[in-house]
Amino acid sequence: MRIALDVDGVLADVIVSWIKYNRLGIKKHEIIKWEAWELFKPEMDRYAFYKELDLCWEEWMSVPTTEENLSSMTESLSNLGTVDIVTARNPQTNSSVKLWLDYHNISYDKYVSVISGPAKADLDYDVFIDDSPINVARFLKNNKRIILYSQPWNQDINDERIHRVSNLSEAIKKIKTI
Fold first, then answer.
1. 149: which strand partners?
2. Residue-level pLDDT at 11
3. What is the pTM of this model?
4. Could you report how far apart the first and last alpha carbons of the chain are, in Å?
5. Within a 13 Å sphere around the CA of 94, how many CA atoms are in the beta-carbon half?
């Protein structure tokens, strides 16, 4: 079993860091769109949003995890097969993300960085654990298995081919049935 595990929104709750950084006075549950910047026009555009997310990774030690016990959860995932971190990001943030993964003792085999989220669907994995609605659409188009890590920005996704989970423990249970 080859498992592709996303970082932002699945392991790292970087949106919490972004909320603290930009001081717009919003709460995580209010970010109901993947294109979060559209919720804050004209104060924010796509480029400013992604630049601020990158800046959050400069302070990688302050980026919280999405859940407790990630180390043991990723170790359990590793017992089911090969787990690669598969992330779409600015290449300049890769070193910070790797430091964050090491700091939190995240188990994985390889670190794979792609230029855009939808490009993940072109990779050869048996299952993808991701939170992006845009990636999910591409995974489905390419007939990939997807475990959707539930977040406020993906609540409108409803497809019988998607397995929605609230935590990695649920993802592990689902993978065991595949």
1. 165
2. 98
3. 0.95
4. 9
5. 14
